[in-house]
Amino acid sequence: MEDLCRKRAVILFADLANSSVLADILSPEKYAEMRKEFCDTMESVAKAVVSQYSYQETLQYKINPVGDEVSIFLYSGEPITETRDVNSVSCAIVDDSAVIRDVRSALQIAISGKIAWLTSFFNQERIKQGKPPEDTGIGVHTGLVVAPKSSQGDVQGFAINLAKRIEGESRKGKYFKICVCYKVFRASQQLTDPMTYFEGPDLAMLKGVHQPIPIYELTGFFWDGFSSWGLREQIAEDKLIQAYLNSARDLWIGSVLLNQFFDKSEFWRVENLGRDLDRLDDSLFIAPYFVGLAFLRDAEGELDQEQKKIKAKKAAFWLERAKRILPGEAAAYKQCEEAYILAGETDKAIANMAEYKAFEPSAPPEEESKTT
Hints:
By secondary structure, this protein is of the alpha+beta class. It folds into two domains: about 5-225, Nucleotide cyclase, GGDEF domain (Alpha-Beta Plaits, 2-Layer Sandwich), CATH 3.30.70; about 265-365, Serine Threonine Protein Phosphatase 5, Tetratricopeptide repeat (Alpha Horseshoe). Helix content is about 50%, strand content about 15%. The chain has 14 helices and seven strands. It has helices at about 20-25, 30-50, 95-120, 120-130, 160-170, 180-190, 230-235, 235-245, 250-265, 265-280, 285-300, 305-325, 330-340, 345-360; strands at about 5-15, 60-65, 70-75, 135-150, 180, 195-205, 215-220. The protein has a seven-stranded mixed beta sheet with strand order 2-3-1-4-5-7-6, with helices on both faces. A hairpin with an 8-residue loop joins strand 6 and strand 7 (about 215-220). Mean pLDDT is about 85; it is low at about 85-95.
């Protein structure tokens, strides 16, 4: 064991959501090409993220593409020396800056990876044929592992099994099929690049775990760095819109378009698309949230004081809807406060923040558990 050390790791599994069906309908050659393109796409995105944050290969991260699945291990923190059971240790990661850094990287990989796969040759060909793009399922978990100190050796630990189980649950997702554990969710609340919004928890019984595990599904993201990855240039907007229409208005594609339109300050398009998504699914937080943001940005730039108040009130209306979908979501309350202040309704701004301060979400049951 002298070449291995204990680390707190953030573990990501990404898998093709419909691989069995694709294996049945594609020729063996086409299926092999598609699997290779998927793994190459995810590996390329992961390497771009870890390179940006100066991770050291093997010592701080490891990427394993196998078949139609990619597993990514991020463990940039210092080795842990406690002699405790790796399967049962419960670690409070919220104050651990290294793990929060790894959560940020994992969420960026998850979001960028799904976008990159959306724009892959395989999916662009499907879009040209009038078919919806094939999706991916992604699961992210954090826990203790033993990791190699050198270029040799594999990452090991029950946390890896649990991450794979969470990825399996992501395929049942209602929204974006990116699911995370409670500790990743809690760490994500401290991030702004990207800001992520989750629904949950849903309690899932997973193989090898004694008790139900709380799982959260991504329902939206807001990323100021969206264009810095070159994604705006990479995604042909007309193709993306066509994909949205061809896929019965897929919520994930709609969310990507919302970020793309907002990034270009095309607020009228944000308002129209957000309303459309809201009609499709009135439980999707990001739809009213982005519409509210668009009205708020319009209000901030409005010179006519009466028009400013009208737009600010519209912003507050939509942001109140977002608050009802995800009670306690800090971003919605903060933007809603700004909208009420611009509208000249300071009493509502005060009441809005008092409501937020009174909101105390209860912590779900501990998720680290011994195997059965």
